[in-house]
Structure formats: structure tokens, C-alpha cells
Design brief:
alpha+beta, BirA Bifunctional Protein, domain 2, 2 domains, 9 strands, elongated, binds phenylalanine
């Protein structure tokens, strides 16, 4: 190759180079000890004497020019001047990262509260059998309590779990007490969407089995939960209730954090909001699993309603519509 074309080739390659490493390897390839231009320079001595001065001059000139070009290119890359499409004076654009859904934020917050109290987090399947969803929970076929849950059945006889309570049974089958678990997850009931109903919702189940557990332990635990979510001034009240798998059963209501008990649209003028269903685990359940000498409590809460109260959301459907304007209000990356 003649010197002129070699020069053009190197010039082009330097222009195209986009990184310091690339420029450096070009320098080595052409101007290094064994570089192509260096070889040309060395071979000049073999030329006929009358050609030597001209060729030598040309080769040296090219060597200096390319050396200069490489130096400049390196400077340009270092200062970014070589990228005309980049306007460094423009304000930066943040990458569009996603944030957590408000239900996930609340679920994590509640999980943290219980983890601090020594609970472990476990999960169970959303497609369940009648056995785990009802029968093992002291709710045999034809038990009127089954009507409390309008159930989605699958063709094969299985069902979409109507609550997270089946996880109590699945856990107790695998692990013997004493134990403390909570279990967050999706549940399903036949319901049409309206501002306060949804065919799918999220519950968190809790179970504490040991010896000598009392209703007072249950009330204390749930009161602490309410205060951690709604602030230490929130008032809790407990009323008798009914669930086939707990005896006695109770429900916890919290004083409406908006009107402080006076009655407003959020609490439907009741002054209080129902939050958690709970009770002492029915002895039938513990006995049938072989844990007759233990006792304990269980509770279950729908966190959609709790989130609506905590974040002042008036329509449950907002949780499912994936509207960015709504979701971004909870996004702590503040896009
Ligand atoms: N599983 C009950 C429900 O969905 C709540 C509950 C859980 C009640 C555990 C008592 C004990 O309504």
C-alpha cells in the first residue's frame, strides 16, 4: 500500500474511533514499534538512494500528522467535543423507573411490623381445594358459613381461595408449634366492581400458636398493628363476631382517622371502620392436626380497605386500573 492510501485509511479509522481504547489500539497498530507506518519508515533504507529523501520526508510527515491527530482525538473524547449530537447544556432526563403499588407498600409495611414481633412470612396457592379453603377450617359441606363467601369454582372442583386462612392449615401440616406466621396474598369472591367491592382483593393472615396464648395477646397484637399503621393516637375497639375456625371470634374496629369518631363519608357516618377479623383458633382444628395441647390466635385483614382509609382513596377500582397519575402519587422515586 502506498503511503497516501495508508494515511487516508488511518485518518478515517481515527475519525470513527469512539473510545480512548480504540484510539490507543490504532496508535499501536500504525505508529507502535511494530506498527505499519513504522515498518514503512524502516524499509526506506532499502530504497534506491535517490528515492530515499523524498520517501523519508513523506513518511515522517505522515507519522507526525497521525501522531497529532491521535493526540487531538484523545483530547476530544476526554472532553466529549467529538459528539456533536450531544448538547451538554440540556437538562438531564431521569430514567423512567417503576415504583411500588400502594397495596404492595402497605403490605410490606404490615409485614415489617410483624417481622419485628418475630413472625415469619409464608405464602400459599391462590388456587385451592375445598378441603383447605373450608373443610379443614372447621367448615364442612353444607355448613351455613360457606354462604358467607361467594366462591369462584374451577371446572375441576378446585376454587379460587376466598381468604388467606387456608395457609394456616398448610403451615400447621408442615411445621409443628410453637409458631408465628403471617401470610399476604390475593383472594377472590364473586362480587361485581363498585367503589367499595372488587372480585379480587388482598388479605394478610396471621397465626400465633403456642401454649397459654390468650385473647389479651390477640388484642394487644392487633392494637399495636393499628397504631403502627394509623399513628399512636388511633383508638381500637373489639366486638364479638363469628368465624367457623375461631372460638371465640372478634373483630377489630378503629376509630375513623378522618373524623375522629364524629362520623363522615369515609366511615359512612359510623365513626369507626372495621379492619380485622380474628379469634382464638378453634380447638377442633388444632386437635385434628394433633396439636391438642397448644392454643393460639388467628386474624385476617383485607388490606385494600385499610389502604383506602390510610391513603384517603374513595374507589377500590383505582387499585386495578394501572393509571399512572394515581400510582405515581405513591411512587417515592418522585418522577
Ligand atoms: N378469613 C376470615 C375472612 O376472610 C378472616 C379471619 C382470619 C377471621 C383468621 C378469623 C381468623 O373473613
Amino acid at each position: 500500500m502506498d503511503l497516501e492510501s495508508l494515511g487516508k485509511e488511518v485518518q478515517l479509522a481515527i475519525q470513527k474511533a469512539a473510545s480512548l481504547d480504540e484510539v490507543e489500539s490504532l496508535r499501536i497498530k500504525y505508529l507502535g514499534k511494530k506498527g505499519e507506518l513504522t515498518k514503512v519508515l524502516h524499509s526506506i533504507g532499502k530504497l534506491p538512494a535517490n528515492e530515499r529523501p523524498k520517501a523519508g520526508k513523506l513518511a515522517n510527515k505522515l507519522k507526525n500528522e497521525l501522531g497529532e491527530l491521535i493526540k487531538e482525538k484523545k483530547e476530544e473524547i476526554k472532553t466529549h467535543k467529538s459528539l456533536p449530537w450531544e448538547d451538554l447544556s440540556l437538562p438531564g432526563r431521569r430514567p423512567n423507573v417503576g415504583g411500588l403499588h400502594p397495596l404492595s407498600i402497605l403490605s410490606h409495611e404490615i409485614q415489617e411490623i410483624f417481622i419485628k414481633m418475630g413472625f415469619s412470612v409464608v405464602t400459599g396457592p391462590e388456587i385451592e381445594t375445598e378441603y383447605y379453603n373450608f373443610t379443614a377450617l372447621n367448615t364442612p359441606k353444607d355448613h351455613p358459613a360457606r354462604d358467607m363467601h361467594d366462591t369462584f369454582y374451577l371446572k375441576d372442583g378446585r376454587l379460587l381461595r376466598t381468604h388467606t386462612s387456608p395457609v394456616q392449615i398448610r403451615t400447621l401440616e408442615k411445621h409443628s408449634p410453637p409458631l408465628r406466621i403471617i401470610s399476604p396474598g390475593r383472594c377472590y369472591r364473586v362480587d361485581t366492581f363498585d367503589p367499595i367491592h372488587s372480585p379480587t382483593f388482598t388479605q394478610i393472615e396471621g397465626l400465633w400458636i403456642d401454649k397459654n396464648i390468650s385473647m389479651a395477646d390477640l388484642f394487644g397484637t392487633l392494637d399495636l398493628l393499628a397504631k403502627s399503621i394509623f399513628g399512636k393516637d388511633v383508638k381500637t375497639e373489639f366486638f364479638p363476631s363469628y368465624f367457623p375456625f375461631t372460638e371465640p371470634s372478634a373483630e377489630m374496629w378503629i376509630q375513623c382517622p378522618f373524623c375522629k369518631g364524629k362520623g363522615c363519608s369515609v366511615c359512612k357516618r359510623r365513626g369507626r371502620i372495621e379492619t380485622v377479623g380474628a379469634g382464638m383458633v378453634h380447638p377442633n382444628i388444632l386437635e385434628s392436626l394433633g396439636y391438642g395441647e397448644f392454643n393460639g390466635f388467628a386474624f385476617g385483614m383485607g388490606i385494600d380497605r385499610i389502604a383506602m382509609t390510610k391513603y384517603d382513596i374513595d374507589d377500590i377500582r383505582l387499585f386495578f386500573q394501572n393509571e399512572l397519575q394515581f400510582l405515581r402519587q405513591f411512587d417515592d422515586s418522585k418522577l
